[in-house]
Amino acid sequence: MHRQTLSQDALPAWAQAHHVEFNGISVDAIPSKGTGLVVTASVAEKAPLMLVPKDLILSLEQVWIHAKADRHLREVLEAMGDYARSSRGAILIFLILQTTHNAVSGEDQPGKVGLRNAFTSYVQLLPSQFPIPTFWNAYEQSWLTGTSLAAALDAKLQSLDREFSSLRAATSMIPWCQRTWWHPETGNLTFDDWKMVDAMYRSRALDLPGTGHSMVPCIDFANHASGDATIALYETDTDGNAVLLLRDGQELTPGLEITITYGDEKGACEMLFSYGFLEESMAFANELYLDLDIPHDDPLKIAKKHVSKAAPGFRLFKGDKTVGWEGPFVWLLCVNEEDGLEFKITRSNDGERELKVFWNESELIDVGELESLLQRDPRSDIFQLRAAVVLRDRIAQQLSALQTNQIEETKVPFATEESAQRFQAATTLRLLEETLLLEAHEMFVQKINSKLSISVVQRYLSAASQDDEPQPIDDFS
Ligand SMILES: C[S@@+](CC[C@H](N)C(=O)[O-])C[C@H]1O[C@@H](n2cnc3c(N)ncnc32)[C@H](O)[C@@H]1O
């Protein structure tokens, strides 16, 4: 679908027409960041730098309000069921309707889709390109091999594909959707259009206090800066409008860029994934998620997978001084039948078969409780040793993937300036993740050594070594 864009020079007129108040700031081009907000004049103390009327805040609720009057929007929302009851789902559908309205408004088109509203032209004012990795070409995506972003990107592309297929399946019986989106001759909605609305949402949505995940026009032109460099914050005023406020301790000087934070705690992977850039000042990866699988020789593999509600993996993060980790799934990998883990199939009152989990013969209603039960168990050191071995091995595997897939700048110039920036971002991500992984690896090696010196662990190991089939020290899992 041809996405019609407008020059961002038209943004001030759009803002004025929709009663967005700019107070001493305006939009301007910012080198290597696209457009941003810049101080142009002095501002009365404590006055908001920007005020966006509440009916311009695009939230789940606002989408459904639009749907009351807009039949086309309503039909798609209803066809998509629960998906359209989440902020992201409803907003993506709303954005694709705006894009469709713009694309089929030409004279040769058979009929308009949706009702025009403030957002119909707003989406045309958004950038024509998004730097996030779902839009990188295959060569650029290969620079991420070995980073945690490679798996995240793969999973994202697959889930976008599934969403696009369910949009097709749910709406192909709606006559205008069939004609405008799906028909081999007259329809022209593509997977790229779906990626585009996902990119608009992901790189521009805010978690607005009191409203939740939403898109706030004009405030979404604020670029990111973390820590003390953050100049402003967004809030909801007592009337429900979104406001941009100067942070305490910051001063306004003409030419200063007004930045907000997209989340100082976000890891390098998430920043590049959601926003397509890494701040130059980023010295740590902050956090990193690695997936885990239950080994094939685990006799309880299928049952464990079935009952686990936790994501199959773990998160490493940089604490104050050391590296921390969390991941309830890891504990399921560390115990088996001989430790006291048991699965039983029972029948509920309505005759349904249910798989139940037991630890030391007591039912575990929530498998997430396993972690605290293992901490309190007299064999806690053994379980912690097993967890440390699992984590150390997975980290070693990731480090090896990162180090054996080094990327090198070629002599051939980059095809575009954007591609050169992507290479730089991928290189920085690799370095930051390698540093965190090396530190985490060292930490788990030390933890394993310290657990091996504990008497209960030594007794366990010597008992294990007297078994018919002794286990190698590291192979507890
Ligand atoms: C919410 S939008 C901000 C407005 C955006 N610059 C524009 O032109 O529309 C987020 C996008 O701005 C860019 N951006 C924000 N902060 C940045 C920064 N510190 N460095 C580089 N790019 C940044 C990234 O492309 C990001 O995906």
Q: What this model shows, in words?
A:
This is SET domain-containing protein. GO terms for molecular function: protein-lysine N-methyltransferase activity. It contains 16 helices and 16 strands. The protein has 477 residues and is α+β, with helices and mostly antiparallel strands. It has two domains: 268 residues, set domain protein methyltransferase, domain 1 (Alpha-Beta Complex); 154 residues, set domain protein methyltransferase, domain 2, CATH 3.90.1420. Helix 3 packs across helix 4, helix 4 packs across helix 5 and helix 14 runs antiparallel to helix 15. The chain binds S-adenosylmethionine. The site of S-adenosylmethionine has 18 residues, from strand 3, helix 9 and strand 7.
SSE topology sketch:
Layout: H1 11-17, E1 21-22, E2 25-30, E3 34-39, E4 50-52, H2 60-69, H3 71-79, H4 87-103, H5 118-125, H6 138-142, H7 148-171, H8 175-182, H9 191-204, E5 206-208, E6 212-214, E7 223-224, E8 232-236, E9 242-246, E10 257-260, H10 268-275, E11 287-291, H11 301-307, E12 313-318, E13 323-326, H12 328-333, E14 341-347, E15 353-359, E16 362-364, H13 370-376, H14 380-404, H15 417-452, H16 455-465
Parallel strand pairs: 7-10
Antiparallel strand pairs: 1-4, 2-3, 3-10, 4-9, 5-6, 8-9, 11-12, 12-13, 14-15, 15-16
Helix pairs in contact: 2-3, 2-4, 3-4, 4-5, 4-9, 7-10, 14-15
Residues 32-36, 127, 131, 203-204, 220-221, 223-225, 275-277, 279 line the site of S-adenosylmethionine (SAM).
